[in-house]
Specification:
This protein has 492 residues and is of the alpha/beta class. It is built from 21 helices and twelve strands. The strands form four sheets. A five-stranded parallel β-sheet has the order 9-8-7-10-11, with helices on both faces.
């Protein structure tokens, strides 16, 4: 153990108040086996000392009780408290460490740790999942045999599956795969969100022409409601996004009414990488018992209840806290929209015989081959088109996707959330799991909205009535749009 002569907290660690006491929070991803240890409770006395460590006080200048404290010594042993000369320098676009396996780096993901091989903490989590034999990937993933079995037993509905579709690459593939490849009876459901690009709206229309056995149901919200909701969402959680929560509230009750056994959406496994690999605890060793996963019905109930009635996060600094706050915010803003879903959930909880669709996902890591192969297949089979000027294949349906990227990155960079910027994790997971090459991944990263304010941001702010003053005063917006320039007071 290296004893720090002038102790400081390592870069990206900060003392926070959790409401239940003081905690040390790491805004990054630690190397396994410490990857799930980002929030560490500390005593009030130690928290006060840690918060004051700026490298100017020598170790022997600290109270003796602190220097002998087992908590303090454990923090030193783990490299959380280090000597001032060992504190990491924040990475820059030019001086950064990049993973040798994927395309993640500690500039776009500040606080990302690497092992001695140069492999990032994310890739280490993926490796552990394979080595320890844990059930990797989403729990509600389903294969062809299961889908065909469900369809064969379905005598109560005109449809075997509802697909929540946007006209993007993934939902178009899902629509084609289920309707044409498997021959299922599909109801396509589309929330015509105002910021869906026109190219993808055209993709949906052509899908109906090329898959004449597919029906479409479409819903819209008034522009006044969408604008007010997105403005409020920006202030509440620092992001303007309402998708896909609104689609769940709109369409799950309809699927239940139509007695459609399955609801699916075009979300890739790599988009769930944090939930499936980083947050999932894996038990190793032969003969160890594992907790049986909940039934598909229970998984769907849990998913919908989180969307409709997300509780206040028990740990405000956990990886899921930001997602929960996002769900809660949409619910508060658009409460009248949730009436049908509330009634469905109430009946389903009271009576197990109440029909509830299963929420399932395709095993895309197995099916896709690669993103480019999927895109070419969709162009050939579905006349699918990319939005003009877009090069990246990760997200293809939303005109303000780069705004989401930028806001997530700025909130993470400014240590306002422990939730990682989504797209960089997805691209990196795509490289690790062989969906794109490393060279393609680097090109995808260049297309993300992390590097500068996206062009779409100015128009969106005008639409939502968020002016220059609001950028610094409209709730959480200031942490999403802060460039850290002159006059910035800092976010920590």
């Amino acid at each position: 153990m290296n004893v720090p002569g002038h102790p400081v907290l390592q870069h990206r660690w900060a003392v926070r108040d959790s409401g239940a006491g003081k905690v040390l929070v790491y805004y990054g991803l630690r190397n396994p086996p410490h990857h799930q240890e980002a929030v560490l409770p500390v005593s009030g006395e130690l928290a006060g000392v840690l918060a004051s460590l700026d490298g100017s006080t020598a170790l022997d200048g600290l109270p003796e009780a602190v220097r002998r404290d087992t908590e303090f010594l454990r923090l030193v042993e783990q490299g959380i408290v280090v000597d001032r000369q060992d504190r990491r320098t924040p990475a820059t676009a030019r001086q950064k460490q990049s993973c040798v396996r994927c395309v993640a780096d500690d500039h776009l993901l500040p606080g990302l740790e690497f092992d001695e091989r140069g492999v990032c903490a994310f890739c280490q989590c993926y490796e552990r999942a394979g080595q320890e034999g844990g059930a990797a990937g989403p729990r509600n993933a389903v294969d062809d045999a299961a889908l065909l079995s469900i369809a064969a037993a379905n005598t109560d509905s005109r449809f075997d599956v509802m697909v929540l579709c946007t006209g993007g690459k993934d939902s178009t593939y899902l629509l084609w795969y289920l309707a044409k490849r498997l021959g299922l009876r599909v109801l396509a459901a589309s929330w015509n969100m105002p910021y869906t690009n026109e190219t993808c709206r055209g993709n949906v229309r052509r899908s109906l022409e090329l898959l004449p056995n597919v029906e479409l149901v479409e819903r819209t919200l008034s522009w006044n409601d969408v604008r007010a909701a997105m403005r409020a969402q920006f202030g509440n959680v620092g992001l303007p996004c309402l998708c896909p929560v609104v689609a769940h509230a709109l369409f799950f009750p309809l699927a239940a009414e139509e007695r459609i056994p399955v609801v699916m959406q075009g979300v890739e496994e790599v988009q769930l990488a944090v939930m499936s690999y980083v947050m999932r605890s894996l038990q190793s060793g032969q003969g160890q018992s594992r907790t049986a996963p909940p039934s598909q019905r229970e998984q769907t109930l849990q998913f919908l209840e989180l969307a409709a009635h997300a509780p206040e996060p028990a740990d405000p600094f956990s990886l899921v806290a930001e997602f929960i706050r996002y769900q809660r915010s949409v619910r508060r803003i658009l409460d009248p929209l949730y009436g049908p879903l509330d009634r469905l959930l109430e009946r389903a909880r009271k009576d197990e015989s109440v029909f509830l669709p299963q929420f399932l996902r395709l095993k895309t890591n197995e099916l896709y081959g690669s993103w480019s192969q999927v895109a070419e297949l969709m162009k050939r089979e579905m006349d699918w088109k990319m939005p003009p000027g877009q090069k990246g294949l990760l997200h293809t349906s939303c005109r303000i996707e780069k705004v989401k990227d930028y806001c997530q990155y700025m909130r993470f960079k400014n240590m306002r959330t422990t939730s990682f910027p989504q797209s960089i994790v997805e691209v990196s997971a795509g490289v690790y799991f062989g969906l794109i090459s490393r060279e393609e991944g680097l090109r995808e990263v260049e297309e993300l909205g992390y590097h500068r304010e996206p062009e779409a941001l100015a128009g969106l702010l005008r639409d939502l009535g968020i002016g220059e003053d609001d950028r610094r005063s409209h709730g959480e917006t200031r942490y999403s749009l802060c460039d850290g320039g002159a006059g910035c007071g800092g976010c920590a």
